[in-house]
Design a protein that fits this description.
There is one protein chain. The protein is mainly alpha-helical. It has one domain (3-289). 76% of the residues lie in helices and 0% in strands. It is built from twelve helices and no strands. It has helices at 3-28, 33-55, 63-88, 93-100, 103-114, 122-139, 150-174, 180-202, 212-236, 242-246, 251-264, 270-289. α3 packs antiparallel against α7 (150-174) and α8 packs antiparallel against α9 (212-236). It starts with a helix and ends in a 7-residue tail after the last helix.
Length: 296
């Protein structure tokens, strides 16, 4: 695997590992969840439009291209991101990251039906069930993982992971249709408009707290957590296999757990740690069971 691919992969994992604590702290600081994710995509889309014009790229307008635009905008950015923001109010930041570590398990299941070379085996199915059992084990800890609405939060995060998996597998199948900038600029622009509308409807009684930290959080989550990470992530689809891409979900939970413990006093119970280990181990096993491909 080329040094460029490895370097960008490490950068992507490192940034996404830090976004969870910043997201949680901004919510604690008074950021309405839907407005928080909406403003993130508003600023990110402005930056991406500037990048698109700088590179003088034209936007494909075929039916196939719009299928990608809309799937990523509606499922990945609007539904999945808004659920993640909303759910993280009720659970530890580390728990949110750990639930997202199950992403490769869902990817593997959906890939069986959409990608020719990613068939589901009994070993893979057993691994998926193993990871799912880990989530259920974490759910059994209830209030120990953040408060009275932990089950609600974890359930919403689980739905967010399920919803996000489909457009990612679809992108792997059709990644040749769009450049990373083209996909992100249209999808994130659509998401920004829809999410801002959702915020205006459901959060009209909430006021954004423009503290110095919340301003920092918006800047960090926009530039690093959205623009840079998603440009790298989509670029990797042309250079790695689907299981290798989903491997990016393994490392952020480790970073998020350490940061949550240091800065937010988030302490997981022994049973929760076992459950988290099962989720991450399941994702690792899925990667080992998948055929590897070299980056181009």
């Amino acid at each position: 695997m080329k040094l460029k691919i490895i370097s960008l992969y490490i950068l992507l994992c490192s940034i996404w590992g830090t976004t969870w604590i910043i997201l949680k702290m901004s919510l604690n600081e008074g950021t309405p969840p839907f407005f928080g994710v909406a403003i993130r995509f508003v600023f990110a889309s402005i930056i991406l439009w500037g990048l698109l014009f700088y590179r003088k790229e034209k936007l494909p307008m075929s039916k196939e291209a719009w299928a990608l635009y809309l799937q990523f905008a509606l499922l990945n950015f609007v539904v999945s991101y808004s659920l993640t923001y909303w759910a993280t109010q009720f659970v530890y930041s580390s728990v949110s990251a750990i639930i997202w570590a199950g992403f490769p398990l869902v990817i593997t299941f959906i890939s069986h039906f959409m990608l020719i070379n990613e068939k589901l085996t009994w070993s893979k199915l057993g691994t998926i069930l193993f990871g799912t059992a880990g989530v259920l084990l974490m759910l059994s800890q209830g209030k120990e993982l953040g408060g009275n609405n932990v089950v609600l939060g974890v359930s919403a995060l689980g739905i967010a992971v399920l919803v996000a998996a489909w457009p990612n597998v679809y992108l792997k199948k059709h990644h040749h249709l769009l450049s990373t900038v083209q996909l992100n600029v249209v999808s994130q622009s659509i998401a920004a408009i829809l999410l801002m509308s959702i915020s205006m409807i459901f959060e009209s009684d909430r006021i954004m707290v423009w503290s110095s930290f919340n301003i920092f959080a918006i800047v960090y989550l926009t530039i690093f957590g959205t623009v840079i990470t998603w440009l790298i992530y989509v670029w990797l689809f042309s250079h790695l296999s689907m299981p290798q891409i989903s491997y990016v979900a393994f490392f952020p939970p480790v970073i998020a757990t350490v940061l949550g413990w240091i800065y937010l006093d988030e302490v997981l119970t022994f049973i929760a740690i076992v459950g988290a280990g099962m989720v991450i181990a399941g994702a690792v096993f899925i990667h080992w069971l998948a055929p590897s491909k070299r980056g181009a």
